[in-house]
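Module 6 notes. Inverse folding takes a fixed backbone as the condition and produces residue identities as the prediction. Think of it as a translation problem where the source language is geometry and the target language is the twenty amino acids. Below is one complete input and output pair. Work through it position by position during the lab.
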């Protein structure tokens, strides 16, 4: 009986140790759906993107929206780039989408292009880099979109990532 108890205790300590250093993809709960997150060292994170934008002098305020675009099953991280005192009509926004891969990002852009056909709307400036898609919702006309307030700063931030 003593040998059996000692054997059980040893097994309880050894088995967890055998599996503690295993690597691989782990399921992450995203919006109540199980998703497999594939980590790739070349992929960018939201923290890296927002840090690069802030380095270029873009002050960003988190904006929670329930009706933002969902592209290729990815929700946007939306930020207001206007001061909180600016009237809602004049505010500008940056939507940052972090995809699992560049391929998923391309599919997300295709999804956006397909969805926007349904609406008569302002077209945002679109920036793509690695697994990141940024939509800059500005107040300029389509013809003047290159002169939008934060256009150059966003381009510089992407180049420096």
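Target side of the pair, the amino acids:
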């Amino acid at each position: 009986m003593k040998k059996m108890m000692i054997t059980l205790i040893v097994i309880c300590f050894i088995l967890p140790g055998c599996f503690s250093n295993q690597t691989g993809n782990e399921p992450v709960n995203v919006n109540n759906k199980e998703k497999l997150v594939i980590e790739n060292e070349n992929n960018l994170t939201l923290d890296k993107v927002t840090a690069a934008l802030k380095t270029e002098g873009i002050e960003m305020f988190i904006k929670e929206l329930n009706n933002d675009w969902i592209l290729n099953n990815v929700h946007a991280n939306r930020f207001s780039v206007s001061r909180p005192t600016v009237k809602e009509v004049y505010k500008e926004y940056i939507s940052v989408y972090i995809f699992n891969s560049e391929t998923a990002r391309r599919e997300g852009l295709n999804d956006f292009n397909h969805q926007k056909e349904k609406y008569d709307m302002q077209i945002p400036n679109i920036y793509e880099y690695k697994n990141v898609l940024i939509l800059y919702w500005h107040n300029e006309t389509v013809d003047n979109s290159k002169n939008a307030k934060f256009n150059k700063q966003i381009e510089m931030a992407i180049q420096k990532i």
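Reference fact for the lab report: Helices lie at 2-19, 46-55, 102-116, 151-160.
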